[in-house]
Design a protein that fits this description.
heterodimer; A: two-stranded parallel ribbon; globular; B: mainly alpha
Chain lengths: 617, 72
């Protein structure tokens, strides 16, 4: 499969439109409030779609497809246990404080509610994390497009080797995102996220349809894959029988509560979209509107994993079959080369079931094998494999554009969250308070450039030293794990003090590190996977270890925050109006029609999610 | 922020849909073996045109209902 002019044209049209949106918003972006907060003037449905789109990075599309092939429909727990309840909680209970406090960012809310040190801790760790995660997803995306081999022929025609695909992918996507964020700030990012959302759905929906048809529908999948793969809760009675190595309690507490609430309710990347809404009512509806499509996303991103596992043509696992169909790179060079000189690669290993290829070592081109000599599956190629298999010229361009769109929406989400937190919570707070608005606008634009350049550097560091990135991601996981406890106590218990919050956060972070340092998932060696302080206990899977590390950190933060708060002087209640639940007037929804009331929307989406859990039980 | 986001999305979908559907009608028909014999370019191109047109119609009928807000 090679790219035709039409595929390029579709991609070009996409690039033209995202840049066009940036240009159209250029004139309206003259104040820092317009640049960082979209002037708080965005309608609810736009914020809602941007809310999921900013989260729907390429890593989610690729990762959820991979996980679908690994664990089956149980991957939906990330949606039906994880995301949805957390999004409903954010809309109904937490949004009034974020939006109503007039804080411009999540760290700023922490300053209003607690104190400077708690804000600084959150602002600095968040700013670093956004840059690194944007860089890591940049790296993953560029690597993927390189492995796909689909760009090799056009690059070869220009006299460039395949390694240039990596550079061009990174630089071109970074430049486009940089341009539209510089031009229109958060509004531009949000409007483009909506555009990208529709494009992602348009690119992947036909893929799921064709794949399902080929696999013989759900019944065909159920007949070919192992039985637990088509049941979301099969085996979750105990950690031993669970496909993820976690029992139902661990899933509900670790994923459903600590990790998901921690992400959706406190991560400024998503919360920023809701804070840009044009009214309190719209801000509260934002995550609820987002929850409706989010609930159906497993069918778009998890199902491809099951399809790839189920369709059998005897070619699964073959190396080098992507893009050029088992023909090595040289054949693509051009008309001057004789075709057919280089024969097909003979599979050295019998084909694996399904369409998922084996992992191939980049340097040697040989299949990667695990400790027992078994070939390792390259699950990350699940979704791209399907794209190349089912999409003809034209649709292939659309599918690749959808992949690029998901990547760029995630990156723009990181960049806009970064420039806001840097400018308001670090620069204005500690480096230069009381400057003019124009000055902060300029600083925000510079921070955008800096954030993107730093992401690019991170991507290259990731390409060089994989381990450093793993360590960094781990450190951020430690910092993030306890955050939810701080927010819950801050918003719902007026007695919580700044000293309590800060001590709790630090203690929770240390507890996460300690828990990780003393445990090890099965099959891993001590090091970045855990056990670097000695192995006190083992988990059946890495996921189990992650969930329990988070539960531990949350509990320690929760308890320490309460104990220290009780020992320190409470704040005057008058200062906490609008920041704490019991001291704030409840927003009244009775005047709204039923379909605009957060509680009604929340109840509908929760009931539908429960029904999905039952259908796929 | 004077921009109704339905306009660029509507135009983009109509344009991409037109490209796909046009290619589906005029282009090589043998490429559809991989898509199980279905000419996905025509079908999905048409769906994208309809979606784009629907957004444009909505945007022109109710320009202020859910448009770009008022820049408050």
């Amino acid at each position: 499969m090679t790219l035709a002019w039409l595929d390029w044209l579709v991609m070009l049209v996409y690039f033209g439109f995202v840049l066009g949106v940036g240009f159209a918003l250029r004139k309206a972006t003259t104040t820092s409030a317009a640049f960082f907060q979209a002037g708080r003037a965005i309608p609810a449905w736009v914020c809602g779609l941007a809310f999921i789109s900013a989260n729907l990075g390429a890593q989610e599309i690729i990762g959820m497809g991979a996980s679908g092939a690994k664990y089956g429909i149980a991957t939906s727990h990330f949606y039906w246990v994880g995301a949805i309840p957390a999004m409903v909680f954010l809309g109904i209970f937490m949004m009034p404080f974020y939006y109503g406090s007039r804080a411009r960012s999540v760290p700023e809310y922490l300053r209003l509610r607690f104190d400077e040190k708690t804000r600084a801790f959150n602002a600095i760790s968040f700013a670093l994390m956004t840059v690194f995660s944007s860089g890591i997803s940049m790296y993953a995306m560029a690597k993927l497009l390189q492995i796909l081999r689909i760009f090799e022929a056009p690059f070869a025609a220009l006299g460039l080797g395949p390694e240039y695909i990596f550079h061009v992918c990174i630089v071109s996507s970074a430049v486009v995102v940089l341009a539209y964020v510089l031009l229109g700030g958060l509004s531009s990012a949000i409007y483009n996220e909506v555009l990208q959302f529709f494009l992602i759905v348009a690119g992947f929906l036909p893929l799921v349809y064709l794949g399902l048809r080929d696999a013989g529908g759900w019944a065909g999948i159920a007949a070919t894959v192992p039985e637990p793969f088509t049941h979301a809760w099969r085996g979750f009675g105990s950690a031993e029988t669970s496909p993820m190595g976690v029992d139902a309690f661990g899933v509900a507490m670790g994923l459903g509560f600590v990790l998901s609430f921690g992400y959706w309710c406190t991560d400024f990347l998503v919360v920023q979209r809701a804070m840009a809404a044009d009214s309190m009512a719209a801000a509260r509806r934002t995550p609820l509107i987002a929850a409706f499509p989010k609930m159906l996303f497993p069918f778009l991103v998890v199902l491809p994993g099951l399809i790839a596992l189920s369709v059998r043509d005897g070619q699964g696992g073959q190396p080098g079959r992507l893009g050029t169909r088992a023909v090595p790179y040289v054949e693509q060079i051009g008309p001057g080369q004789q075709r057919g000189q280089v024969g097909q690669i003979t599979p050295v290993t019998p084909p694996a079931p399904g369409l998922i290829p084996y992992k191939v070592h980049e340097g040697t081109g040989e299949i990667v094998r695990d400790g027992s000599g078994q070939p390792v599956m390259d699950y990350d190629l699940t979704v791209p494999t399907l794209l190349l298999r089912y999409f003809p010229t034209g649709m292939l361009g659309l599918g690749l554009t959808a992949l690029l769109a998901s990547f760029m929406s995630g990156m723009a989400g990181n960049v806009t969250a970064f420039n806001t937190v840097w400018t308001y919570d670090i620069y204005q707070a500690y480096l230069r308070p009381r400057a003019s608005d124009a000055h902060y606008l300029r600083i925000g634009r510079m921070a955008t450039v800096f954030g993107i350049v730093a992401s690019i550097l991170t991507a290259y560091v990731a390409a060089q030293f994989n381990n450093i990135m793993d360590v960094l991601q781990l450190v951020f996981a430690f910092v993030n794990a306890p955050l939810l406890a701080t927010f819950l106590l801050g918003m719902f218990w007026k007695r919580t003090t700044g000293h309590g919050a800060f001590t709790g956060l630090v203690a929770g972070t240390l507890a996460a590190a300690l828990h990780h340092g003393l445990t090890l998932p099965a099959g891993a060696v001590a090091g970045v996977k855990g056990g670097w302080l000695g192995v006190a206990s083992r988990y059946p899977s890495e996921m189990a270890q992650n969930f329990w590390t988070a539960i531990d950190a949350w509990t320690v933060c929760f308890v320490v925050t309460i104990v220290v708060s009780l020992m320190t002087r409470p704040r005057d209640e008058r200062e906490l109006v609008g920041l704490v639940y019991s001291l704030t007037e409840k927003p009244r929804d009775e005047a709204q029609p039923w379909h605009r009331r957060p509680v009604v929307l929340g109840a509908i989406v929760l009931a539908a999610t429960a029904a999905l859990n039952l259908v796929f039980f | 922020m004077g921009l109704d986001v339905r306009l660029p999305i509507g135009v983009m979908f109509a344009l991409m849909g037109g490209l796909l559907a046009g290619y589906g009608v005029l282009g090589d028909q043998s490429i559809y073996a991989r898509s199980l014999g279905i000419n996905v370019n025509i079908i999905w191109g048409a769906v994208m045109i309809v979606f784009g047109a629907a957004l444009l119609i909505l945007a022109s009928r109710h320009p202020r209902a859910t448009g770009g807000g008022g820049g408050r």
